[in-house]
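Quick bug: Dihydrofolate reductase output formatted oddly.
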Amino acid sequence: MAKLIYSMITSLDGYAEAAEGDLGTGADDQEVHTFIGDIFRPVGTYLYGRRMYETMVFWETAHEGPDVPAHIQQYARDWQAAEKIVYSTTLESVSSAKTRIERAFDPDAVRRLKAEADHDLTVDGPNLAAQAIAAGLVDEYHLFITTSVVGGGKRFFPDDVRLDLELVEQRAFDSGLIYARYRTR
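Here's what came back:
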């Protein structure tokens, strides 16, 4: 059975999206990007909301530019190789291969995906992840914590949820970014 992983870059004060501006520094260097690529290379399916898909579809063509670094080319190839499911009531079509639209998040369908998958899945974006967390579907949480406090926005963890997690891996990068991987108990 595959795991469902929720992973996002988050501010030091726990926001996956800042109310204003970005989440700060620490996640945009080659060391971090290579690490992220290595961790998610085995992922077989990405579950996205519309907004996260519109951000990530960049990887469909990211490898085509001139002088693209090897770590960016590799991440693009890995992303392109994976299946993508976009949960949206408004998106009319997709612009990437191996991608389909679902109009509603169905926890039972995701349970079946996990049971049948040979490779792990990720759920990306705080709104969609909140639904998966509420349904008890998330097996691991991968936080990439920046050095910034942003004071507001969309939280990494949804309100009104209690989780008992076990820290299974951590790493600090030269940029100040901290990676923490937790597993549900």
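Actually, after a second look the formatting is fine. The mean pLDDT is 95. Closing.
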